[in-house]
Structures are given as structure tokens and as C-alpha cells.
Design a protein that fits this description.
Structural class: mainly alpha
Mean pLDDT: 83
Helix content: over 70%
Order of helices and strands: HHHHHHHHH
Oligomer: single chain
Largest sheet: none
Number of strands: 0
Number of helices: 9
Length: 288
């Protein structure tokens, strides 16, 4: 059925509007039913990714190890703010450029996106350790709990730059309509994380550090697969020869501020929520 506003238009304008905005209910239903299974599988896989470390460590190592995993979650949330800022800015800018059909401008925007990705990875590698150390000191943990937290954090810090690139790839695959690829990547990452957690923690007895290393390897695999697919199967990395201007990088970052601000509020909320449980655990460990 056509969707046409009831404003007075002449026949020519009305015909053009109908031709441009013609809506097929059967097509919409087919598209929705086609995407729905992959959306559900992706969400289930993300749930597996976020919960598997705690489940494995809590069952195979113990309560203190599980507590250390939960204490590190606000750190990953804070580092995730950068991912939300950069990935949302890149995804929104590129999708807008694709919609405008200005191919030369789009090639330049893709070059800006590629440059921003490289700069953000380098920046995260430099800043993630000081940020993690500052947040861990914020909890004033006992020596034993501090050791457990750092054992798990080591793997998370290794994973963070690769996770940043993977998040950017998620937005790029979304705007390209590669839903099936996203689902396959999410399922693969979740299964790899689960298998390696069971292997490192249950078989090799690496403790909470094994869960961190399992997460790191899963992130690396997904990042590499995402970049390889995008480079070989799409033209998302095909860029122009123009020189990058700093103001265009800043404009791309400003585009992602709304998504980043929401992620920042959630991260700070998680940080302060963990403060009381951390203090409680600190007291229990010292009494033991």
C-alpha cells in the first residue's frame, strides 16, 4: 500500500511520491521474519559472551574468583565508552554518506573512519592500563582480592583493543546489511570463549586468569575474522587519496557523543554499585 501524506499535491508530484514511498506489507513481513531468527541468535550469543566467564569461574574456582570477575566489569564498561563513541560516530557518518550517494565524499569518509580506528586503537593501548589501575585502587581491595582482580584484568586489557575494532566492524556490517555474518561472528565468539574458559580454567587450572585469556583469544579471533571479511567481501576499506583533516575526525567523534554519553552513565553506575560489594568482600577476606 502507498504511504502518501494528505496534503494537496498535483498528479505528477503524487505519482512520484507513490513510486518512491510505496510500501509492500508482504515484503516487510518477509524481511522481518528473515531477520528475526538471526537477531535472536545474536542476542543469545551476546548473553553467552557476557556471562560465561562468571559462570565458569564461579563453578570451577570459587566465590572469590567470581567476585573478582564482577569487580572488573565496571572497568570493561568504562573502556567500552570509547568503543561506543568511536563506533557510533563511524557507523552514523558512513551510513549517512551511503544514503546521500556522494561516492567521492563517501570514500573520504571511509578514509577518515580508517584513520580514526587506528588512532583509537593506539590511544586505548596507551590509556587502558592507567585507567584500570586507577579504578582498581578506587576499591581499596585486600592483597588477595587485588591479585585475583589483576589476574583477570590482564586478559581483559589484551582483549580491549581487539574488542574496539570488533565493535566498529559491527556497526560497519550493520550498515551493509550483513546480519547473517554478524550472527555467525557472535556465535563463534561466544562458543570460543566458552570452550577456552572450560579448557584454561577446568583443564589447565589457570584460575580466574584463564577466563581472562579465553576472553582475549575469543576477541582476537572475532576481530581478525571481521576485518578479513570486510576487506575481502566489501569495499568499506576502499578510500580516497585526500589528506585527512583533523576537524573531520572531530566531527565524526561528535556524531557518536549521544551513544557514548549513555554508555558513560551506565559505566559510572556500575562502578558505584560495585563499591559497596567490594568493600564487603574486602572485609570478609581480611577476617579470613
Amino acid at each position: 500500500m502507498p504511504y502518501v501524506h494528505n496534503s494537496p499535491v498535483n498528479n505528477g508530484e503524487n505519482s512520484q511520491t507513490i513510486a518512491r514511498f510505496w510500501r509492500s506489507d508482504s515484503l516487510l513481513k518477509r524481511k522481518l521474519l528473515g531477520f528475526l531468527p538471526f537477531m535472536l541468535l545474536t542476542n543469545l550469543s551476546l548473553l553467552l559472551i557476557t556471562s560465561v566467564d562468571g559462570v565458569v569461574v564461579g563453578n570451577l574456582v570459587g566465590a572469590d574468583a567470581l567476585s573478582s570477575v564482577n569487580i572488573v566489569l565496571p572497568i570493561t564498561s568504562i573502556l567500552g565508552v570509547a568503543s561506543a563513541l568511536i563506533a557510533s560516530g563511524i557507523g552514523t557518518t558512513l551510513s549517512t554518506g551511503m544514503g546521500e550517494n556522494h561516492f567521492e565524499d563517501l570514500r573520504y569518509q571511509k578514509k577518515v573512519a580508517k584513520t580514526l580506528t587506528l588512532l583509537s586503537v593506539l590511544g586505548l593501548c596507551v590509556l587502558e592500563f592507567p585507567v584500570a589501575a586507577m579504578m582498581i585502587r578506587f576499591y581499596h581491595l585486600s592483597h588477595d582480592m587485588n591479585t585475583l582482580v589483576w589476574n583477570y584484568t590482564a586478559g581483559i586489557l589484551i582483549a580491549s583493543p581487539f574488542g574496539l575494532v570488533s565493535t566498529i566492524c559491527v556497526f560497519e556490517l550493520q550498515i551493509l546489511g550483513k546480519t547473517k555474518v554478524l550472527t555467525a561472528l557472535a556465535i563463534g565468539e561466544g562458543l570460543i570463549n566458552l570452550v577456552l574458559d572450560l579448557l584454561f580454567v577446568g583443564v589447565f587450572h589457570l584460575g580466574v586468569a584463564g577466563a581472562g585469556y579465553g576472553t582475549a583469544v575469543a576477541n582476537v579471533v572475532r576481530c581478525v575474522c571481521s576485518v578479513v571479511y570486510l576487506s575481502r567481501k566489501t569495499d568499506i576499506y576502499a578510500t580516497g587519496d585526500e589528506r585527512i583533516r583533523g576537524k573531520d575526525i572531530l566531527r565524526m567523534l561528535r556524531t557518536g557523543l549521544s551513544e557514548a554519553s549513555y554508555s558513560a552513565m551506565l559505566a559510572l553506575e556500575n562502578c558505584f554499585y560495585c563499591q559497596h560489594p567490594a568493600g564487603h568482600l574486602r572485609g570478609n577476606i581480611r577476617r579470613d
